[in-house]
Amino acid sequence: MNEKLDRRKKYTRKVLKESLISLLADKPISDITVKELCGLADINRSTFYTHYSDHYDLLSKIEEEITDDMNRYLHSYNYEHEEESIQMTEKILEYVIENKLMFQTLLNKEAAPTFEKRMMDLTRGFMRNNWMDEHVANKQESEYLSSFVISGAIHVIKDWIERDMDQSPREMAVMINHFINYGFSYLD
């Protein structure tokens, strides 16, 4: 009986998540209602409220799930070695491919205004703890450099998604890492 309940809970959460992402593709979170979300998901509102307090809570849970996954990828490689850094970036890009619609939607600031900031904060913390303190003495420079690198990488990924992922994850990972490590000299 418990397994059946767990399957139902998983299904309900999955369909609500997919429905919210579908709605966010067309309009911002502020214009979405729980009634509309439940109608699309074919779920009763009372069922929705057993899982989430409102649609912002659902969006937050989706963002947390992605953040947890990204954090796991970031910490499974040694960022100091270029090949491992490329592998880590490639793994993240494969995850983006698996969840293309979700990333395409959540990286739209109008649809989900907090997602990009969450990604920035997660990556900035990782860089600070694993790289910046050893390589950049000035804290202020470190913050600016991490903002520059992270927002550049995020926007390259957004552009890649908009171009229908016209390069392989490996090609993009090499390109992003070379941009970060070599800047304009990479183009020579």
TrEMBL record:
Gene3D superfamilies: Tetracycline Repressor, domain 2. Residues 33-52 bind DNA. It holds the Pfam family TetR_C_8. Residues 10-70 form the HTH tetR-type domain. Keywords: DNA-binding, Repressor. PROSITE patterns: HTH_TETR_2. One of its GO terms (molecular function) is DNA binding. This is TetR/AcrR family transcriptional regulator. It comes from Halobacillus litoralis.
